[in-house]
Amino acid sequence: MQLNRVHSISATQDEDVYELSCNITDTTGASYDTVYVSRPDDPYGLNPSIRTWLQKNLDASIKPYVPPTDEQIRASMPPLTARQLRLGLLEGGITPRQVWAAIDATPTGADKVRAQIEWEYATTYSRTHHLIATIGAVLGVADEQIDAMWRSAARL
Fold first, then answer.
1. Cβ atoms 85, 119 nearer than 8 A
2. pLDDT tens-digit series, residues 136-153
3. Quick one: how many helices (H) and strands (E) in the chain?
4. Parallel, antiparallel, or unpaired: how do β-strands 31-38 and 62-63 relate?
5. Residues in CB range of 91: below 8 A, 6 or more apart
6. How far is CA 49 from CA 1, 9, 35, in A?
7. What are phi and psi for residue 4, nearest 5 degrees?
8. With 0-12 CB in 10 A as exposed, 13-18 as middle and 19+ as buried, what is 43?
């Protein structure tokens, strides 16, 4: 593997660990742009070349680490099956009957019908789906509580 060019470097939350946008040539001879995470004690693959490049280019601009936003974290949460979601809600003290009541409390129209269909027939749910936020708001469950319930349900 060969490091051809470094486009940008960003710090990560871990000290001396960097995310590089770079152009490489792989073992098949194909060249392409990619993102590579370089750790200080990694002796494999492209990392030794990257560490050498970093030592030779001490003046290279390194973008500071920016923690992900709550929205980015939620978007990266794994989807839940209907079973996981319902059991997670139950463990969080919310029954399916309460969810149905929250849906029934929404104004009549296409959005209400859509919510009923989503709740009854969806086989998976994403954390960022509008139904999750809507039901949470109607039931008075804060986003942070939903996040914790989601993480717990993902382990079921």
1. no
2. 999 999 999 999 999 999
3. 7, 6
4. unpaired
5. 149, 152, 153
6. 9, 15, 14
7. -95, -45
8. exposed
Q: Which two tokens stand for residue 23?
A: 């152009």
Say how far apart CA 52 and CA 57 lie, in whole Å: 9
Tell me the Ramachandran region of residue 140: left when phi exceeds 0, alpha when psi lies from -120 to 50, beta otherwise: left
Which residue type, as a one-letter code, is found at position 31? S
Give the long-range contacts of residues 52-55, CB within 8 A, separation 24 or more. 53/3, 53/6, 54/9, 54/18
What's the pTM value of the predicted model, to 2 decimals? 0.70
The model's pLDDT over 28-71, given as tens digits with 9 standing for 90+, comes to 999 999 999 999 999 999 999 999 999 999 999 999 999 999 99
Lookup result for tokens 């280019």: 57
